[in-house]
Amino acid sequence: MKNNETILRVENIHKSFGDLEVLKGVSFDVKRGETICFIGPSGTGKSTLLRCINLLTQPDQGSVWLGDAEVTNSGKSINHFRQRIGMVFQNFFLFDHLTAVRNVEVALIKVRGMKPKEAREKALDELRQVGMEEWAEHYPAELSGGQAQRVSIARALAMNPDVILFDEPTSALDPELTREVLEVMKKLALAGMTMLVVTHEMGFACSVANRIMFMEHGEIKEQGSPEELMNDTKFERCRNFIGQFDQINGD
Amino acid sequence: MAVGQVYGKRPVRFLIGVFVWFFRGLPVLVLLFLFFFGIFPGLGLNVPAMVVGATVLGLRGAAYQSQIFRGAIQSVSEGQMIAARSVGMTKLQSIRHVILPQAVRVALPGWSNEYPNILTDSSICYAIGVMELMTRTSQIVSNTSVTMPIYLVCAGIFILLNFAGMRVLHLIEKKIQIPGFGTGAV
């Protein structure tokens, strides 16, 4: 793995829904192996930004580059890019009619054209990674939220993506389930996976992220390392935002 | 047709809409006469009444069933399509491997209505002289002048056919049942 290689470049992304300008020109680079956490108030375009990266939402303006190739304006090859950009959703979106292992292998077989036997092995490997191997034959309706989310992480991992986008992966989970999912994500980050994570879990952001971006009103307002977030004056607005937790906790 | 109506481009949706509107808008009897006396002869085709009956019942059934499926497809949550696209499936692959397998399970109970519907509607083909169950029955009645017992036998045969068909559909429903879909939930 080459260090300092820029794997993902996002340039000047704009997106409006009707009159509402959700993203007002967002740009950043991601190096291979980096974990970047996006935090900020709801409705500031964090999720939209992630969706603009794999074009689940079409940006109005700006470009996204994966390595040297442009993802935006890629026409039909967008399906190839999406294989290299995994995505994990707040509500899991597991395929409800398929067992856990089938959820992980279906794209390998139908999209990659892998042989079913090979795909099954790979799928079980990925499930093992997230500690869900024993649940391989269960349907999504039979899994807890945390288990379902871990399966959906395995589904994203199976494609060997260059980057995984996490869109509030733990927001639908209680604290205990949140922990089991965050542990899996931490393991991935330490193993060198490149990850973009939209989250409200400050503990996770501070301990795992290489960089934290504070977004507000469709822009990246403040950014830096977790240490800078704690001490540096440039993170003033962000600390205010986080500080609201402490006030409720009676600090 | 249902897939076209949900995911198709505007002209596709329009054409399917017209088809559905036509075949659901007219009584079976009117459709049968229209095709038997008008459309098929008008096209210069001399087809047996049997074929006309099958065509009309088939197309009419398709119109009704397409709406059952449209409802079923629309009931599959949007997230399923988003997730399928996010792993790199094309729209067609997503529909085929993710949306339709779920939609079929939702559609089946409503869909199974169509079997007895079409079966019993077939008796109307009597009117254009198709040799179906009801035509046969009437012939026997007029030959023997026994009425009630023979009509009862006819009814019995309809009920048997329906019963058998419904059993099969029920078995299929059971067979493809999955936790999280319909009554079989954990």
The unreliable regions of chain A are none
Could you name the CATH homologous superfamily of chain B? MetI-like
What's the Cα radius of gyration of chain B? 21 Å
Second rung of CATH, namely the architecture of chain B: Orthogonal Bundle
Helical residues, percent of chain B? over 70%
CATH topology-level name of chain B: MetI-like fold
Q: How many β-strands of chain A, per DSSP?
A: 10
Q: Estimate nothing, just give the exact number of structural domains of chain B.
A: 1
Distance between the termini of chain A: 44 Å
Count of helical regions of chain A:
9
Task: Give the number of DSSP strands of chain B.
Answer: 0
Class of secondary structure makeup of chain A = alpha/beta
Our estimate of the beta-strand percent of chain A is 25-35%
What's the SSE blueprint?
The complex is a heterodimer of chains A (251) and B (186).
Chain A: E1 6-17, E2 20-31, E3 35-39, H1 46-53, E4 61-66, E5 69-70, H2 78-84, E6 85-88, H3 100-110, H4 116-129, H5 145-158, E7 163-167, H6 175-190, E8 194-198, H7 202-208, E9 211-216, E10 219-224, H8 226-231, H9 236-248
Parallel strand pairs in A: 3-8, 3-9, 6-7, 7-8
Antiparallel strand pairs in A: 1-2, 1-4, 4-5, 9-10
Chain B: H1 2-7, H2 10-25, H3 28-42, H4 49-75, H5 78-86, H6 91-111, H7 114-121, H8 133-144, H9 148-175
Helix pairs in contact in B: 2-4, 3-4, 4-6, 5-6, 7-9, 8-9
Word description of this protein:
- The complex is a heterodimer of chains A (251) and B (186).
- With 251 residues, chain A is of the alpha/beta class.
- Chain A has helices at residues 46-53, 78-84, 100-110, 116-129, 145-158, 175-190, 202-208, 226-231, 236-248; strands at residues 6-17, 20-31, 35-39, 61-66, 69-70, 85-88, 163-167, 194-198, 211-216, 219-224.
- Chain A contains nine helices and ten strands.
- In chain A, the strands form two sheets. In chain A, strands 6-7-8-3-9-10 form a six-stranded mixed beta sheet, sandwiched between helices. In chain A, strands 2-1-4-5 form a four-stranded antiparallel beta sheet, covered by helices on one side.
- Chain A is globular and about 55 Å long.
- The termini of chain A are far apart.
- The model of chain A has no long low-confidence stretch (mean pLDDT 91).
- Chain B is flat and about 70 Å long.
- The model of chain B has no long low-confidence stretch (mean pLDDT 88).
- Chain B has one domain (2-176): Orthogonal Bundle (MetI-like fold).
- Chain B is 76% helix and 0% strand.
- The A-B interface holds A 54, 56, 79-80, 82-83, 86-87, 89, 91, 93-97, 106-107, 110-111, 139-142, 152, 155-156, 159 and B 77, 79-80, 82-90, 93, 97-98, 101-102, 105, 178-181, 185-186.
